[in-house]
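Escalated from tier 1: pyridoxal-5'-phosphate holo job.
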Amino acid sequence: MSTKTSSSRRAFLAATVASAAHVWVPRPVKGYTAEELLAPVTPMATGISKWDLDTPALCVDLDKLEQNIARMQRSLAANKLASRPHAKTHKCAAIAKLQMAAGAIGICAAKLSEAEALAAQGLDRICMTTSNLPVGKIRRAMQLRKRTPQFIQAVDYEPNAHDLNAAAKEAGIVADVVIDVAVGTRSGIPAGDDALSLAKLVDKLPNLKLRGLLSYDGGAQHITGFAARKESALKNIAGNARTYEAMKRAGLSTEIFSGGGTGTYNIQHLVPGFTDVQVGSYLFMDMQYLAIGGEDGNPVYSDFASSLTVVATIVNNRFPGRLTTDAGAKAFTLNVPRPGVIGEPGMDYNPGSDEFGTITFTEASKAYKMGDRLEMIVPHCDPVVNEYDYLYGIRKDRVEVVWPITARGHSQ
Ligand SMILES: Cc1ncc(COP(=O)(O)O)c(C=O)c1O
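Tier 2 regenerated the structure:
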């Protein structure tokens, strides 16, 4: 991607690019080639200070990101587990490649269009942790499996397994499948006999190959306090562990027994047979995760560093005890928990209005001027990332790299 876009060309492209995508573009137009006109507008050059970015700007601290990846990899390996990071968190091919380079055995995807976008960027070991229900989607998934032979599809419903088998046959493949066994009630087939009989069915269907089971416990991840989190995670997964044993006894494949996340990464190894953890938020560490507390008893969960921030500009300072920024609900998605204003513990940041953030404070470290910048830790990372086209990789306050958020908005 070109990072040398001049501001006048950027403005011209910004004004034309949306319509240009749908029309025939004569070349050259005002000195620009058709490629230049149709290319995405590069937001800013690398090398500049993060404080000079157009705002709201989504930034990731590269030192912290790299440390988080290395630390997770080390910790899981010490507990004899692999990482299969969940790409729903970052939706970014460049970050998935960093995770793979650090030793992940694959990545996960939550949505088919997300998996397709990441596969198109060369990520070939994708486990789709959500089942695809409509037949059209199943066919698409099997086409993706045809292009990407290491693709693994979750299934949690017998008719869906039959549809998957038919779509795999139509595509001329034998598709790898894992049984999504519920922990809690959100998704997945109930543990026990139901799950075992689905595993037997998948094992029998000629165009499917059973690889094992998934068991993600969304409810346990954010339980406050390590002891309570551990107790709940182990209690909740007990039925799944029995299902795993029953599958093994029945001679079915249990090569994959995957689940867990950032809140339970250091608990999952206590489940016999568990193979890998689908960690996501550890990369970024949002306000939700900071609040759950660590194994060391610290009320702040500090195993990983908060690397993901939004930089915003102050657009109103004229009312005492209040500031307004240009980053509201469309920049943060949630207003509970509040974004954390870095360096300003006395500020309460409410991103409740669509385009504006409202800060109230009784104490601030300085008198803020119009145009000054503030940097916030995000409330919950996954939906925030989905709001931005680009993620600025920052090292020592400078933009080192601009990463497109590959599967941004790919929610089908
Ligand atoms: C199936 C599944 N696995 C893993 C994760 C990642 O969890 P975390 O961000 O808590 O690490 C999620 C997140 O929602 C998920 O839905």
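The two ends are 27 Å apart (CA to CA).
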